[in-house]
Amino acid sequence: MSALRGAWVLAAQCPSRLGTVDVVTRFLKEQSCYITELHSFDDYRGGQFFIRAAFRPEVADFEESTFREQLAARAVEFGMTFELMAPETRLPVVIMVSKADHCLNDLLYRYRTGQLAIDVRAIISNHPDLEPLASWHGLPYHHLPITSETKPQQEAAVKRVVDESGAELVILARYMQVLSAALCHEFAGRAINIHHSLLPGFKGARPYHQAYEKGVKLVGATAHYINDDLDEGPIIAQGVEAVDHAHYPEDLVAKGRDIECLTLARAVRYHQEKRVFLHAGRTVVLAG
Amino acid sequence: MSALRGAWVLAAQCPSRLGTVDVVTRFLKEQSCYITELHSFDDYRGGQFFIRAAFRPEVADFEESTFREQLAARAVEFGMTFELMAPETRLPVVIMVSKADHCLNDLLYRYRTGQLAIDVRAIISNHPDLEPLASWHGLPYHHLPITSETKPQQEAAVKRVVDESGAELVILARYMQVLSAALCHEFAGRAINIHHSLLPGFKGARPYHQAYEKGVKLVGATAHYINDDLDEGPIIAQGVEAVDHAHYPEDLVAKGRDIECLTLARAVRYHQEKRVFLHAGRTVVLAG
Amino acid sequence: MSALRGAWVLAAQCPSRLGTVDVVTRFLKEQSCYITELHSFDDYRGGQFFIRAAFRPEVADFEESTFREQLAARAVEFGMTFELMAPETRLPVVIMVSKADHCLNDLLYRYRTGQLAIDVRAIISNHPDLEPLASWHGLPYHHLPITSETKPQQEAAVKRVVDESGAELVILARYMQVLSAALCHEFAGRAINIHHSLLPGFKGARPYHQAYEKGVKLVGATAHYINDDLDEGPIIAQGVEAVDHAHYPEDLVAKGRDIECLTLARAVRYHQEKRVFLHAGRTVVLAG
Amino acid sequence: MSALRGAWVLAAQCPSRLGTVDVVTRFLKEQSCYITELHSFDDYRGGQFFIRAAFRPEVADFEESTFREQLAARAVEFGMTFELMAPETRLPVVIMVSKADHCLNDLLYRYRTGQLAIDVRAIISNHPDLEPLASWHGLPYHHLPITSETKPQQEAAVKRVVDESGAELVILARYMQVLSAALCHEFAGRAINIHHSLLPGFKGARPYHQAYEKGVKLVGATAHYINDDLDEGPIIAQGVEAVDHAHYPEDLVAKGRDIECLTLARAVRYHQEKRVFLHAGRTVVLAG
């Protein structure tokens, strides 16, 4: 929301307990921080508490490091971890693609027009095809081909690009390679994948063809964090649209493209705005 | 659509071949039948042709039996099978339920108000709970309890009620028993089940709990014909709604109720209006 | 959400100012009230602050009157008004109808099954038609016919029934009479109407016919509070569905029924759960 | 649908009368044309008949001119007009824009990837801003600035570009100028505009700001043909999404962008596939 403009964002979680809200809100008050948006959720099944606040300091001498230190001092008693984001921060990301360009095109459009507060540091692909699109946007394009033999080296190169770019999020925008368990693990919680199916619907290859065979009347897409199991990580966002018998597999694929773009962009925005919390294999999305 | 009022409906299918449309439309013209709605679909992958026409005879002496005979004579060359429905026909149905009444309540409301052109001949349940609802609508209620020992006898009784009622469709409106393979087979193509999941998503028990564990952001329901595998028959309609982390399993169940009602009612209407064609384990729904 | 079970709800609003969150959350902490759900919103254009908390007292001797008094003492400094609702409270309502029964049937179903925490005290209609439905649910039915001559007396009778029933909300569930400005004013903020159009789309008579003439591809409904202008009060919820050229006006009406039911039920639930705040002619709905 | 590949499309309309279907389908059969998709609709209120057939000639010597002549000879008796489109035809279009590029970006992406079978002949804008985007796609960009004084000359230039380009459709992709009545008339039925509101909702300037003031819970967009009244032409497609109080006007604008893109692209596709029929100020969209 535009209410975010000029606002700091604080996102925190800890085990459920009396006073979890108060420890945050009282501190913000004492620091003369004006809360513009606040959302908390206490998961009684999981026994975990989540809070997100957007706020504006009403004092001239607000200092991030002091704020962090003092909040940490209070949070420790609650076992609370937190993240803090300064206003107008753009999240540094690396985007990974193969040949399909619909998600990349959409992300770059939102990046270029400022709709997504991301800072695209690099694009990685196992194919050369999308280089012109990257270069029109003035972005470095790393063509890192892959074979079963070269997979370890290629993944090492991927990791190097990500590390050197300073990216805090990796976006798998239809990257058609299965990451090794090691790389999945490395990127766990900081890589978002778009899966072309309503998980846990159709896994494995060609989900739209599976959907066709099944005669489904809805198709969808799932944006999720990757974990050790590429297609099974915690879900962030899902999208869906109606189809009918006249949608042959190739039509489902086409329809899926629009859903994939919108769903992935939504998930990236939630992540960037620190609305997504990971806990016990599920997400809490304080979507506002 | 209301264009159906006063109209006959003809629904036919046959293997793909030149002239499949013409054999139907020319015949209708020759019989002075005015077509108000026409939809055909030729499935090039399955090699099967489907057509549905709503029409009004423009002659005073239209006779159903003659029409049937003469059309059959022409259709035989194409291997075409067809169904014909007179105007204002109400489909005789039996509804099967257990304890949950949301789908039954919705169906009976649409039945009572004429929104669904069905003629409810009987309600069957393995529990006595919903008898008052049936009796308020003046409908016979067959309480047929079931145990693993009495299952064969109970299913025989179910079949008897269905047969004697003259029902052409059995609606499983949250009937919480797994039908035997034999009864599934008996009812194949003429029984619609509402499954509380976006098939092929969550099978087995408590799909909403599974959905919760998975942290899905969408829940849905699937109306489908039963075949030998109760939960895996051809899909007729699907519905979906957005949810979030704050939906505990019981909330998903509640949300699911609305989706189940609407999705089941839609599937029954499609079936009653002869919009659904079964072929090779999939449906073609000429939904208008 | 089911998290509400066993929880008190506190809803408050006041002009925007530093400390608005803290004054509420600190108080709850001091009272040993465990917050299960918290949502606040600060409207920077309107300069107004809104907060809603669901909480459970963790002390044995929690006393509502003391809680109210002490909170009021703190709130006064902020010009804050608040409402407090005890766990498992059912909102006393009166439902007004004419002849169409789809919304009434839906509300009574949700009332009977506990999906809506309302306590239906009476049903008022200007027609006798829906009396059987009311009586099946064991509810008093007031048939109050109306003509242009008897309108003042009829409205006086309506007001009397509402007052004597102790209802805190009046639900206009397709009551096809225009309330007088005086009665609108009397019920302002405590009467919800369902309008069969996507306000501000089609006003006046027969909006579905207007929609047909216009050839719209979407139809919808709007649930809103009434104010002095019956069809123009603050919007609480809206629903929509796709239609096409084959939907004649009567089909749009039929389609509209489902949307009206769902949209009205949603608005009533939001209101009952104290999620709706009125300010400056608009609503803030902390939908959770 | 992909079933279109390799198929001719025939779209026709005429006054309602017995034999309207047969005159088309019998002819196709006689010409050995295999119908892959057929949809007809008879508007009983408007007394007009519409039909669309996708077909493949099964003879080697199919000749378009002969087909046209012979069909015309039969159609004349019914007062039937028709259009015929060869397989893989790309519709020549001109796109008009101002400064906002979201719709243009989306259309060019679909054009470049073949998702939309259009042939973009030129882009016209009253501002220079989007020239780089056009030139990246290798498309001519006509910067035609406009003032109230130069409007007649500018519109003459617009018309000249359209005429000389051979465009059969003009797409107003957020062109923020009101066309003169004369140019509207000139382009009637062959220009599609995207309106950033759910017509007939908010007309005039800044509809999203109007929507904010009204506190709507849904925002949408409308793609329509222009006629003499720019914002009031026959509707082709509408899209919608849910919003809440936290959407300030600028957020509604942002949300609207996605809806506008998808809705405009859908309308252009329907038009290109000859699915849209204009009659008596409304559209019939045989959407398949």
Explain what the structure shows.
- In chain A, helix 3 runs parallel beside helix 8 and helix 7 (207-214) crosses helix 8 (249-272).
- Chain A has 2 domains: 2-85, 2-Layer Sandwich (Alpha-Beta Plaits); 91-285, Rossmann fold (3-Layer(aba) Sandwich).
- With 288 residues, chain A is α/β, with parallel strands linked by helices.
- The longest helix of chain A is centred in the last third of the chain and has 24 residues, at 249-272.
- Chain A contains 8 helices and 13 strands.
- In chain A, the strands form 3 sheets. A 7-stranded mixed beta sheet of chain A has the order 7-6-5-8-9-10-11, sandwiched between helices. The first copy, chain A, has a 4-stranded antiparallel beta sheet with strand order 2-3-1-4, covered by helices on one side.
The biggest sheet of chain A amounts to: 7 strands, mixed
Give the termini separation of chain A: 8 Å
Mean pLDDT of chain A: 92
Oligomeric description of these chains: homotetramer
Low-pLDDT sequence parts of chain A:
none
Helical region count of chain A?
A: 8
CATH topology heading of the largest domain in chain A: Rossmann fold
CATH superfamily of the largest domain in chain A: Formyl transferase, N-terminal domain
At the first level of CATH, what is the class of the largest domain in chain A? Alpha Beta
Question: Which value, in Å, is the CA radius of gyration of chain A?
Answer: 20 Å
